Amino acid sequence: NLIVSSATVGHVLDTGRLVQWNDFLDESTNESHDWVIPGLLERMERVIIVAAEGVGKTMLARQVAICCSAGIHPFAFQRIPSIRTLTVDLENPERIIRRTSRSIAKEAMTLSKVSKLDAYILTKPSGMDLLKAQDRANLEDAIEQVKPHMLVIGPLYKAFLDPGGRTSESIALEVAKYLDTVRTVYNCALWIEHHAPLGTTMSSRDLRPFGSAVWSRWPEFGISLQPDPTALGDYVYDVKHFRGAREERPWPIKMKRGKRFPFEVLDWMKVGI
Description:
By secondary structure, the protein is of the alpha/beta class. The chain has 6 helices and 11 strands. A hairpin with a 3-residue loop joins β1 and β2.
């Protein structure tokens, strides 16, 4: 493996780079975007999607992974350069995954006119413990075989186990640092599904990542899906950001449950206005 799995987050030495500001700014490098989803997400960037149970975080993740691998924009449904994706499903039984995903694959392949997806899935409904070397090695083996441009994984709460005797902050920091090592070594984007804290009603939920505040600070894009209370009888969701994005991008701001795909966009964020 390229990463040496251990409880200390792998022995990949990153000493950083010291350079004078003027020299840094004068360097001639390729500063063009290295998109995995054109205009929206680059390699090495991290997205965390938060929503209540039953909203469809998992279906949205599959839509992103499958469409992008077919060369279809997962929200605009226009042709884009295809990428290779790896989905790590840590919760759902295989039969359910097949039944709920066939239509996504069929629609994406029909739109793109491809006969096979450049997409892979690792199923482990019992979850992983990324605090342990063996589970890290198993994940890395799959990543090494696939070499994805985007890693889609979740739900996050089933990616590690609280060993006891530690704060949630220190556990989250270790897992986040490990995932950062993965994205650095394999140069891939991360799309992570996570849950919101439990609340008394859907509308009163604090739509931020459950657990440590590390997950609110860590990603480039922290996105929440919240049902639109004015859309009576319809499955319409406001797409909000639980943290300020590190760069302006045209993310959807309102989506609904779709007929061809699990989610369709009703409105987009206006950028540069």
